Amino acid sequence: MTPILTIIPLLFLVVASIPWLLPHLRTNLRHLLRKPTPQSSQKPSRITSLRVYPIKSCRGFEIQKTKLHMTGLDLDRRWMLVDAESHVFLTIRQIPEMTRIRTGLSDDGEYLLLSVSPTKGGNKGDGGKEIRIPSHPDKSWLEKNTTLATDIEIWDTVTDGYVYNPEIGINQLFSTFLNRSVALVYKGPTPRVLKGNGDPRLLGRVQDTNFPDVHPVLIASEASIDELNGRLKSAGHEGISIERFRPNIIIKGEEGGAWVEDSWKTVRIRSSSSSSGDGKEGGGEGLTFDIVARCGRCQVPNVHPETAEKHRTQPWDTMMKYRRVDEGLKYKPCFGMLGAPRGEGDIRVGMRFEVLEETDRHRYIRGF
Ligand SMILES: *[C@@H]1O[C@H](CO)[C@@H](O)[C@H](O)[C@H]1NC(C)=O
Ligand SMILES: *[C@@H]1O[C@H](CO)[C@@H](O)[C@H](O)[C@H]1NC(C)=O
Description:
Blueprint: H1 3-16, H2 18-33, E1 45-52, E2 61-63, E3 65-69, E4 72-73, E5 79-83, E6 101-105, E7 111-116, E8 130-134, H3 139-145, E9 146-154, E10 157-164, H4 170-178, E11 182-187, E12 192-193, H5 200-203, E13 208-209, E14 217-221, H6 222-234, E15 249-251, E16 264-270, E17 287-296, H7 316-322, E18 334-341, E19 345-348, E20 352-358
Parallel strand pairs: 14-15
Antiparallel strand pairs: 1-2, 1-15, 1-20, 3-4, 3-19, 5-11, 6-7, 7-8, 9-10, 10-11, 12-13, 14-18, 16-17, 16-20, 17-18
The structure holds 2-acetamido-2-deoxy-beta-D-glucopyranose (NAG) (2 copies).
One 2-acetamido-2-deoxy-beta-D-glucopyranose binds next to loops.
Keywords: Membrane, Transmembrane, Transmembrane helix
Domain MOSC: 188-356
Transmembrane segments: 6-25
């Protein structure tokens, strides 16, 4: 190919991306001209809980220790449920009952345990039935027991996924429970590249994730849920558990330090003991995350994670009064921060959590 022929498509790409780039250009220029960000003065904290939700929108579980991958915590949102015909994803937003689908891990970590939690006053006959599937299915298992589909829809993207075959029994169990024909899907090999604030042009690298809405990891602080619960209780409502916000990493936070996470820009997790270490668990470098955006919330936190009962107003109404803190999310309250890890390694409860850099420039960009 002659050089000119190579340049034409390139030029076209540059020109085509101008309308998209313009709004960000100003912010980025300001960013570049600014003096280096000062080190954060926030005090180090500690990881108090790790949570994974293997099937998107279904009930997850706590874990003491796991692996952080570039795509998120091991097992987290590797699976999701889709409509059996259209292959469009299902979420707890439309189907609160999904939170009654339980996931767990066998003692040896080899199997994911799936079941449906019975209703309070008796059950519908499938209570107690448990199906096991490999937690890390290998190629040959997937070839035998699933069918790769390339038309899996999640938000406005289409990606691929391994659809579980009827013989596994899992689609039947969930379809009966949800009164509609559904199928379980395991993320396929094609990377689902981050969009919105995680877009390669903003993040500075190409990173992907499995089936969370947009970004690999959600970090939340106990100090903030405590503050929110204080408000709920003084208004005569019940307090809620942090599980309702479906975070992955929960930190304690300083006393009186509610909502300091709003300004996190770079954070790091390290083993608490150490000056030395095995390097993998962050004796030295630790695990660093770019905090890409605040997490705008819908009404999912109004759903009780155990019973699937949805509260008519809370915590939504309370949060709308004081947690609309992001210019890019005018009509949504924020809780928790979305991060993209810069590296991989072991992560466990008790590790030290440090804020390296802060910013006052977070602004949510729609990623779906
Ligand atoms: C799935 O595939 C494996 C082969 O890798 C096979 O042993 C197994 O019986 C298959 N079926 C189920 C229900 O797991
Ligand atoms: C399915 O139908 C049953 C019986 O009509 C009902 O009790 C249950 O709530 C329905 N489940 C869902 C998820 O809509």
